Amino acid sequence: MTRIGTSDLDIFPLSLGGNVFGWTADRDASFAVLDAFAEGGGDFIDTADAYSAWVPGNSGGESETIIGEWLAARKPEGVVVATKVSQHPDFAGLAAANVRRAAEASLGRLGVDAIDLYYAHFDDESVPLEETVGAFGELVADGLVRHVAVSNYTAERIRGWIGIADRLGVARPVAVQPHYNLVHRNTVEETIIPVAQEFDLGLVPYYSLASGFLTGKYRTTDASGQSSPRAQGAAKYATEQGLRVIDALQEIGDAHGASIAATSLAWLRAQPTVVAPIASARTVEQVPDLLAGARLELTADEVAHLSSISEWTPANA
Q1: What is the pTM (predicted TM-score) of this model?
Q2: Which stretches of the chain drop beneath a pLDDT of 50?
Q3: What is the signed CA dihedral for 235, 193, 78, 6, rounded to 10 degrees?
Q4: Chain centre distance of CA 235
Q5: Which domains does the chain have, with CATH numbers?
Q6: Dihedral pair phi/psi, residue 81, rounded to 5°
């Protein structure tokens, strides 16, 4: 188990991404994935109130609703659920009143008394940071939220949030959620990880598998025929350098009897302050690799080799 920052949340070191629930995984498929994850030892689920408002016919909150129905049906013990605010069409931004209404709506969909980990999903510079920090602090004081976190914030804004929280005497963030993986490293390693180390924040990276590229599914530099947004997102990494990363992952994975995906997640877990990479599964068959990635321990030399070979920034990454 791994502790998230300074919180009391001890979790299995992998977070199951809920972005696919109500999108590419319907209710039954989502229940099956959640069952497989929990049966395999997983206990940390990540979602957002906006998932999946981008799907035609959806309005946002579909993922939270499915997770809430699963929690009610299965009644699992010790499951930690993280959700986020600022992007739901009905609750956009981080004004104090909006944050409160959005949290109450999320609580209703999830069917829980308190949100374990509540993220500011994206920074909202149209609202004074002090107002947002105060709103999150009140949610904790009122028992609606156990712990506060930030996602997609710059190092400067994270420092600002912590300084305001201390001045107001409210809860500090305990976690940061950045875009971070083997082929998307520079900004996080240069700016976010130092702040996380200074303030004992846990990193919970998203896009941990680079839209599927780090599963080894894309093994050619020819991106033609990749029509889906996910495939196009992965294809940009399929350069000669990117494929060398995949080759190295396969070689190291083979030595452990592990998949490329599991090996990539293991590298991410080995980075400073990282507590639990987020990875999604549309099907039950995809779950074992994710669980394996939470248990695989690479040697220091293997981690260093992967770090060395992936020192490159893809175009448009």
Answers
A1: 0.95
A2: none
A3: -170
A4: 21
A5: 2-177 (3.20.20.100)
A6: -115, 125
